[in-house]
Amino acid sequence: MVKEQAHTVSSYEQELDQVRGMLVRMGGIVESQMAMAMAAIVDRDEDAAMEASERDPQVDELEREVETLSIRLLALRAPMAGDLREIVAAMKISGDLERIGDCAASIARRTLRLDAGDARLSPGGLRTMGRLVQENLRRAIDAMSQQDSERAVEVWQSDAAVDELYTAMFRELVTYMMEDPRTIRSCTHLLFIAKNLERIGDHATNIAERVYFAATGEQLPVARPRGLPVV
Amino acid sequence: MSAIVAENIVAALGVIAAGAMGWRMIAGRRAATMSVAGGDSVHAAPPSANALSRMIETLDLVPAAVLVLDAGGRILHAGPGAWELFGDSLGAIMRHPAALSAVLGLGDGDRAEVDMMLDVPIRRAVRGQFRRISIAPGQPVVLATLQDGSERDALERMRTDFVAYASHELRTPLAALTGFIETLRGPAADDPPAQQRFLEVMAGQAGRMQRLLDRLLMLSRVQMSEHRKPRGTVSPAAIVARVRDEALPLLEGGPASLNVDLPAGLPDFAGDADQVVQVLLNLIENAIKYGSDEHNRAVTIGLRVRQAVPAALMGVVGAGKIHGPEMGGGVRQGIAFTVTDNGPGIEARHLPRLTERFYRVEGSSARRTGTGLGLAIVKHIIDRHDGRLTVDSRVGKGTSFTVWFPFGDGVSLKRHETVIDTSCPQPADPG
């Protein structure tokens, strides 16, 4: 099927495209913030840690732009059905992306305050959790940019594994702190890092749910299938 | 005009235009949907579809990963080379802030080059070169070529990883060996029964070092090929037959038995047969090791093969609620292999971490024989195949691992007509 295109792009389509484009840009930036935060945790990369928080204003700015443009579209074009869902989803997704950027920056800042000397606090669990969250984030943004509900469902399903890891990590860190109060400082930072990773996972899931709703007009079912995906 | 421009482009890429008569390839499955995966929308007039399609005809003959973007960084077209090399990652590459800001900063005729790193699902190093040209007055497009530096990157990381792991994990058995040698020379020099006992333990430790080295080497090999898509097709029946043969030595004389459930007539899927067999053998070996605890009780291992969608989509798919961008194409199908055992099971908190290198479930009886690398290898192989690994376990009941391999959409191999849409996303061409 070959389409002959002599396409006059309506300014409505153009504006909607602009919103999509800005969301994808935000997605790309928060993905790289997340990657830098992980480099900061795993490789103790201080430059990456600094850079992750420096990207924050860009994301905030884009969020405001998406919001302004979406409201404009709603007010002037009164979109219906799928278009309406997409624009409302875009506003909410930009909020989720902005929060993800904040969490990633916060993780990166905390790694700068960690004691490098405390060898007992191996980053194994955080690394795994981070990878899983990174994978979910990437899938959520792919799902968003390609309006792909299949991917959205996968993200929504794997969040259970993130929660499981967070709970395990929480227990482990509390045990350390009870055994040896000298670790409280480092463990508290690690606990907040884990919490922030878990938050990022939640926001990625939110994005997936909104993409699914925008694409299908239906909500995801309440129960998740059994079985945990493994990173 | 456009033909001349197209030839210039090809010349710019250092390739002689062999004529624009060839087929146009496109990414049947996700091509049209990719059109939203980029940066800002075009503010200039969209390039004329005609000039663009003629240019693309020529570009697709270039044996490299070539993309055509609009001035805002959105992917208008991804050539066969780009799909072959990067597939689904093209969206993530082109929204990378380094790539997008390079593209947005280009004026007519400008070039830019950036290096990017992607972490998931597979670590990849990508170098992108961009050049903005006009295919007609006021109609800019950006040509991008992508190079894959993952192999060099993987090689460098592998060296450091190998040294770190080898020094860390080989130290324990080596220390044991050194200790026993001291004892044999000194206190046990005149005690033949003790010597025999020690020698047996030493043989065990040496065997462990051997296994560890074998596994480390296997892991390195798997990592080196990770970013290259498997080229072959494999038949589930042939895989199961090989697994049966190769699992025989593991089962013989032991407490474990293997039941295979393989329906006839399952379709082939895209994969590397040796690696798929390796995955199943590792899972079966684990089921034997961890399933039969210290009491050496009988363990029944099941290997079930089915045509299925990824586990994450089950239950949702049945209700007909999934509408991917590829209407009519439906959800990705593939082959799922499930390895079950009736062993002691694994607590939920360990499950997501099982594929970590050297991760051990504490208190497990197999810590002496396991290398801690089996599932890490499994995971790398599955990532290479764009497959999925899920695990379901209940303490006291048993564990089941499911590996799912997609049939593979053969995007890069099939010949499709192109749908070029320079303005808005479209439902994909049913491939």
From TrEMBL, chain A:
Where on the tree of life does the source sit, at the highest rank? Answer: Bacteria
The record's section on Pfam families has: PhoU
Bilayer-crossing residues are none
A GO cellular component annotated for this chain's UniProt record is:
cytoplasm
According to its UniProt entry, one GO biological process term is:
negative regulation of phosphate metabolic process
What are the record keywords, sorted?
Cytoplasm, Phosphate transport, Transport
The record's subcellular location field reads: Cytoplasm
Classification via SUPFAM superfamilies: PhoU-like
List, for all copies, the residue spans of the domain called PhoU.
Answer: 23-110, 126-211
What coarse category fits the chief subcellular location reported for this protein?
Answer: cytoplasm
Note the subunit structure.
Homodimer.
Family membership, please give it. Answer: Belongs to the PhoU family.
Sum up the protein's function in the record's words: Plays a role in the regulation of phosphate uptake.
PANTHER family, per this entry? PHOSPHATE-SPECIFIC TRANSPORT SYSTEM ACCESSORY PROTEIN PHOU
Q: By what name is this protein known? A: Phosphate-specific transport system accessory protein PhoU
Q: What is the originating organism of this protein?
A: Gluconacetobacter takamatsuzukensis
UniProtKB/TrEMBL annotation, chain B:
The record's PANTHER family line, in alphabetical order, gives:
SENSOR HISTIDINE KINASE GLRK, TWO-COMPONENT HISTIDINE KINASE
- Keyword Cytoplasm assigned to the entry: answer is no
Any single GO molecular-function term of the entry would be: phosphorelay sensor kinase activity
Stated name of the protein: histidine kinase
User: Which keywords does UniProt give here?
Assistant: ATP-binding, Kinase, Nucleotide-binding, Phosphoprotein, Transferase, Two-component regulatory system
Q: Which SUPFAM superfamilies match?
A: ATPase domain of HSP90 chaperone/DNA topoisomerase II/histidine kinase, Homodimeric domain of signal transducing histidine kinase
Top-level EC class as recorded in UniProt: transferase
**Matching Pfam families, A to Z?**
HATPase_c, HisKA
Nucleotide-binding is among the record's keywords: yes
Describe the location of the Histidine kinase domain by residue ranges.
165-409
Q: Which domain of life is it from?
A: Bacteria
Catalysed transformations (reactions): ATP + protein L-histidine = ADP + protein N-phospho-L-histidine
Q: What Enzyme Commission number(s) appear in the record?
A: 2.7.13.3
Q: Where are the transmembrane segments?
A: none
- Biological process annotations from GO: osmosensory signaling via phosphorelay pathway
